[in-house]
Amino acid sequence: MKNLLRFLLLFLAIATIAGCAMRPSVLPSPGGISLQDICQQYNVHWQFDAVTQVIFLEYKDHKAKALVGSTVVLLGQQKIILNAPLRRQNSTIYVPDDFESKVIGPFGAVRSRLGFRGDLSNLKVHTIILDPGHGGRDPGARGFGGVKEKDVNLDIARRLRGLLSEAGLKVIMTRNSDEFISLNERTQIAAKSDADLFISIHANSNPVHRTEGMEVYYVKTHDRRDLDEEQRQKNERIFLRRLNAKASVTLQGIVADMMYELKVAESGRLAMRIVHDAASDLEVSNRGARHCRYFVVRNTLMPAVLIETGFLTNRQEEKKLNSGEYRQKLAEAIARSILTYASSS
Ligand SMILES: [Zn+2]
Fold this sequence. Notes:
The protein is of the alpha/beta class.
């Protein structure tokens, strides 16, 4: 009797534990990962036809077709059989766990490290100029521990280039080594390119050593003196030549004005987006989007910002900026904010 009682108690205990463990806290998904999530991670473009229930996948030259409710995927001409069928619940399509290796794998797509959750298929930005500040005989700011701004800027820009390229953007660097490039040359590289954005990367300094945080600069207004500046006019001529515009002086003036209007409005939006998103991502103090008259920001024709990533004169920030791990986080936060801007209308 005693044994039977003990057995019953044990049985009840196991049943209760098992019951708790098996009770789902949320509604069960029909199994697998959402198609939207996986395509976003790999930047694979997808479309769903609700009438035929066919899913079209595209990545560079690769194409695939899948059907909701079926285990068959057509990868080009090749037929692939998945472990389980694709399923649809409400508006979400779920794929089985071998979808990633059997379908996305052969595309040669690389998983983006960014975790960007927006839509990359319809960006308003295609080419970006990254301008690592200083270089060569111009070291820029210097920290107490000897960290040179030119090195920090170049490393962040290189990391950013990797992340933005992975997201499908074309990236042009004004310098990719420790060399001196004049400010004029930097803006000419931009004028000769088909870039939509110009992003200059810097690290800050301040005689008040406790000053810390991130700030992003942009040009808000131009006075006549700025518009008549020699390098700006030269860049406008390069730009118009590239457009093949055999235009009159008046028409050239109109084009330049339009470019200027667009530049001012978009530079402000981009600056605010970067400093707001990146500062909160990195949990550093947000010193805001600020107006400036810096040469590279003033004399480029496309929307342009200058990011001051942190203060090398602040011991804590110098230590952080000297760490590859932090520079990677910085690059990721900036890349996400640029992509958020680029995917907004
Ligand atoms: Zn600088």
